[in-house]
Design a protein that fits this description.
40% of the residues lie in helices and 11% in strands.
Length: 306
């Protein structure tokens, strides 16, 4: 139940790409803080996207937002279709008259990932689909939603990606994935420069080794049994649930002094240190620092990175 003490009471959020994983968790945590949250995606109870996961829908996400104390509103939207995004923004304007938080979390391209392949060995259509899903969706949504968001000072854009400006200095997987995941980081920086002139801002955020529904299924585990994977998957003990990033994002959004972060990019562990947030089990995993130590030729102990 919303109360006047809820930090995001009366705030209107759009979490674009909220079907599952980090997007769903962020939507729920924004709702827990009192926000009205519009949740979008391509998988509904009557239609499944190319990702092929019928068990996770935007209707479920909206119900979870409401159960957490906010107001969840599901709007089926393909964020590559300008007319659909424009209609979404017009609906938010008609129903709420404002937009305070835009979370760009569109992706759904994991099935396209070819690790360590040269650019010219990757099918062009396959690579460009990755760019469409990870960058073009974000650009279309920002372009059409920002005129509503900038009507009021304090608006915030949150770009969700994989890694931050420091972790992504090296090559990420392959040419197309690298561009798809670094694009939102640059978007946050560039948008931050524009938005600060009208009293708004932008940041980019990333989970670490995230235990999304898709990842758990890949390893044949559940959130209740995930620790069984530690013995067979290096670094798995430093994996994190989607709640970890979501709690950090909700804390950042509610921070009255969040303008100091404008244009920057953060991983979940950095948000945890800044705001004192934890994962659902009370831990604070930092997979990125562990990975950095391994890449430097060290033999890090996982327990030193929690």
């Amino acid at each position: 139940m919303q109360t006047t003490e809820s930090p995001l009471n009366a705030k209107i959020a759009l979490v674009a790409g909220a079907t599952r994983g980090a997007g769903r968790a962020i939507a729920v945590e924004l709702g827990r803080a009192g926000a009205t949250v519009y949740v979008t995606g391509r998988t509904t109870r009557t239609r499944v996207s190319e990702v092929g996961r019928a068990g996770e829908t935007i209707e479920q996400t909206a119900e979870l937002v409401t159960a957490a104390g906010g107001t969840g509103i599901a709007v089926p939207t393909d964020h590559l279709e300008e007319d659909q995004v424009r209609a979404l923004v017009e609906r938010i304007d008609a129903e709420q008259g404002r937009l305070d938080i835009l979370v760009n979390n569109m992706w759904g391209g994991n099935y396209l990932l070819d690790f360590e392949k040269k650019m010219w060995d990757i099918d062009l259509a396959r690579g460009m689909r990755m760019i469409d899903l990870g960058v073009r969706t974000h650009i279309i949504t920002a372009s059409l939603a920002l005129p509503l968001l900038v009507r009021n000072p304090g608006g915030l854009v949150v770009e969700v990606t994989d890694g931050n400006a420091e972790t992504n200095k090296g090559l990420r997987a392959n040419f197309y994935y690298d561009l798809a995941k670094n694009g939102p980081i640059r978007m946050a920086f560039i948008l931050g420069e524009d938005l600060k002139q009208v009293g708004c801002g932008a940041v980019a955020v990333s989970p670490g080794f995230i235990r999304s529904e898709e990842m758990l299924d890949t390893f044949g585990l559940t959130e209740e049994t995930w620790r069984e994977g530690i013995a067979r998957t290096p670094g798995w003990e430093l994996s994190e649930s989607p709640v970890y990033l979501a709690r950090g994002v909700a804390a950042l959004v509610a921070d009255p002094e969040r303008a100091r972060w404008n244009g920057r990019s953060f991983v979940s562990a950095e948000l945890a240190r800044a705001y004192g947030t934890t994962d659902s089990d009370g831990s604070r995993p930092d997979f990125w620092s562990y990975d950095e130590a391994k890449n430097a030729g060290k033999d890090p102990r996982p327990e030193d990175h929690r």
